[in-house]
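Q: Hi! First time doing this. I have a protein sequence and I read that you can turn it into a structure. Is that right? Here it is:
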Amino acid sequence: MAIFELSDTQAHTIDYQHFILDSPSPYHAADLVAQRLVDLGFARQKETDAWDASPGGHVMVRGGAVAAWVVPEEVSEDVGFRIVGAHTDSPALQVKPSSQSTTGDGWGQIDVEVYGGMLWNSWLDRELCVAGRLITLDGREVLVRTGALARIPQLAIHLDRGVNSEGLKLDAQRHMHPVWTVDSDSDLLDYIARMAGLTGRDEVAAHDLILTPQQGPGTFGENGRFFAASRQDNLSSTHAGLVALEKIAQEGLPSSGDVLVFMCFNHEEIGSQTREGAAGPVLETILRRTAFAMGKDEDGLARMYAASSCVSADAAHSVHPNYADRHDPDNRPVMGRGPILKINANQRYATDGEGIALWKKACAAAEVPCQEFVSNNSMPCGSTIGPITATRLGITTVDVGVGLLSMHSAREMSHVDDLVALSRAVGAYWRAA
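A: Yes, that's right. Below is the predicted 3D structure, encoded as structure tokens:
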């Protein structure tokens, strides 16, 4: 019988599917990254323990953020950090402390806040699961995810005759309120606690729970070239970096070179100004503690920063076939044609000439194509962890990512070739290409 061998792209796509399925919340994503690296021999670092900068791989989790670093066998005097940054969070509906309410007609609803800049309409008429973490009375953190539990039903056209001609109008408080039961006295938090293996809500002190689409990822289009899933902004970059780091680890510990750092922040979608976000001290703390554990002093740390660089990997915009006029007329990145450099004169992206040269060198070494994105002047772009990291640390930073359509939708679209290409380019960057 013939043995079927998967191509690199097929294998990467399948692994990406499983990664998204297993990462319904930032807490799940951080835990999964850490566990996969621990399985490869990385040492788990607790922040309350003495810092370990011995040769080899190390990994640390802080809530929904995860960091990994690889120290080479020999550390030279001119060593720096080679950092790849991403984020684990995506737009979602966050469960309020009240957790549930009941209408006068008996509908049981989950009380939520809108987290991040989601496309509200795309969340209608989709089955949603609850995922995140429970904090128990004795201080334990317990991850949980339910099956399909809730839905935001759209109003029938018979009761909204102008919806197609006049547009859908939604109010976040009144219309983005998921239903999960009717004519029932069930307790939502008790239900979720039992699904997490607890005795009930009596064990729960607090929670960080979100609602996210239950529908799993999949491919479509000619020869399955397109990939559809929620949370691709920014699990596409998180997964790409993880796979690249795993391949480096499988090749064996680097004998020399820079310290490799993989930093996946949380809370990018809401501005990053948290203890797990890029505007907080988490990355700086990791770099400082690593440098000091390697025997560096403050001047030595400053010299390491001067020799360092950062690739900020976050999703990018592909030219949209139905809204092509929304893009710059002379810079036309299209998904499937390689990772995208994100450039903005007002430094909403941190990319500059040094960063462009650094990234193009990595892409050339990885033998993957590279594109450039510049906003239409009439439409200011968003921002990323890149400018925040460059500002906090003074490190050369370049913003890149795979092109998406339907960004911030409940179901985003990417190209399978770009996903594997980003991982290869990141790997080349870490290998000092």
